[in-house]
Amino acid sequence: MTFSERCIEGEVIDLLRQLIANSCVNDGTPSSGQEVRNVELLADYLDVPGLEMESFEPYPGRRSLLVRLGHSDRAASRPRKEVPSLLLMGHTDVVPVEEDLWRRDPFGGEVVDGWVWGRGAVDMLNLTASMAVALRTLAVETRWRTLSGDLLFLAVADEEASGVYGARWLTENHPKLFGVDAMITESGGVPIPTGSGVRLPVIVAEKGTHWCRLTVHGTPGHASRPFGTDNALAKAATVVGRLSEHRPAAMIPEAWKIFVEGLELGDDLTSALTDPNAVDAACEGLPLALAREAYSGTHTTFTPTVCHAGEKTNVIPGTAIIDVDIRTVPGQSSDQVSAMLINALGDLASSVDIEPLDVHEATCSPTGTPIWNCLNRVAQRFYQGSSTLPMLSVGATDARFFRSLGVPSYGFGMFSRKMSIEEFSAMFHGNDERVDVDSLTLSTQMWSAVARDYLA
């Protein structure tokens, strides 16, 4: 490793540790997150000649930062074809933790045996830090002067709660700022070995969201006289059970089919995982991590996540509230999903009010675009003989808001062989989240390489 590479590695480790320590925990309430702490950290780090910064704060403390490197003297309103532009986007918030279940302090940012531990180490402060370091390095070393276009970096708030105060707000209120040619965010790039070489997944599509709040109605009464009562909590327990057990028919999205075929799993397994009549049975025989991915990639999923009922131990609750995380496959409409939900509730549907919380259809970006070809070229510099592989994300990212603007948007990174796809997937919103130092360095180098290739 050269002296310059060691300096870059040290910077990205240090920046990631500080981002983790700022504990910008987003629990979905308006005042949580307080991403202003991470934005101020990044703004201070990126305060160098050649970088222009602008911040946005739609709600106190929910701040996002837009940084531009390059030819900002040219009017942003010009036709995009005259000046190529690329946006790198990383979110600065993280999800809550159950600290007792962690082996290390989730906000300690400890470096142990070449791994940085902490909430956000994978989702996605690692990439946010590496994007910032790559951007600063390009500016300080004046490499940007050789670029023919603009490189933008967006450190965005509120990704972990649907982007209400982040990407959704920004794209709805300032769409002209994001009239870029391409955008890259989380979360691909974990090397997958196959018989004909390494495949590096690129998130090109993601399932839709159809989050709902169910209000289950009963009749309040004294808890000492339960016989024959209409207990909303007991009824809610049945609702939760029905939703948990609901198994909609499988559908095979094109992005899932292409991804499976690229894994070279063998004809029989490939056929089963891409056949709507066989995929359920195939999931039963797979390792748990792959089974979860296969099931979610081919089904609309219903997951009850939050339940509230009752005010006092001796009062039978008259209402119970259940939040349900519903993820939809590409091509499904809101009406279809609502019908599926009613079907799952069965005879209890008349006792339940359904309130949509966050509804966004599945999105997809095409392959074969200039930025797609760029990622494929750059990937081969890090893994000789490798190729990029389109992948469907079963979770949501902020890329959906940029796809809605017509911007080709992908999820990528660059990880070392120390990070397996199974381990990577399990750490999203999980315990003992961590990332290896080699992956941090690779991602930083990759962003710089992508900028110089795409904006050459």
Structure description:
- It is a single chain.
- With 456 residues, this protein is of the alpha+beta class.
- It has two domains: 3-194 and 362-454, Zn peptidases (Aminopeptidase), CATH 3.40.630; 208-359, Alpha-Beta Plaits.
- It has 14 helices and 19 strands.
- The protein has helices at residues 3-21, 36-45, 125-140, 167-173, 232-245, 254-262, 267-273, 279-284, 288-298, 334-345, 370-382, 399-403, 421-427, 437-454; strands at residues 51-56, 64-69, 85-91, 111-112, 115-117, 150-156, 182-185, 192-194, 197-206, 208-217, 221-222, 301-309, 315-316, 319-328, 352-360, 363-364, 387-393, 409-411, 434-436.
- β4 and β5 form a beta hairpin.
- The longest helix has 19 residues, at 3-21.
- Residues 72-80 have low confidence and may be disordered.
Descriptive tags:
19 strands; globular; 4-stranded mixed β-sheet; 34% helix; Aminopeptidase; alpha+beta; 456 residues; Alpha-Beta Plaits
The total of helices stands at 14
Unreliable stretches, pLDDT < 50, 5 or more residues? 72-80
Approximately how much beta-strand content do the residues carry? Answer: 15-25%
Spatial arrangement of strands, main beta sheet: 1-2-6-3-7-18
What is the CATH H-level superfamily of the largest domain? Answer: Zn peptidases
Largest beta-sheet characterization: 6 strands, mixed
CATH fold category name of the largest domain: Aminopeptidase
What proportion of the residues is helical, as a percent range?
A: 25-40%
Cα(first) to Cα(last) distance is 26 Å
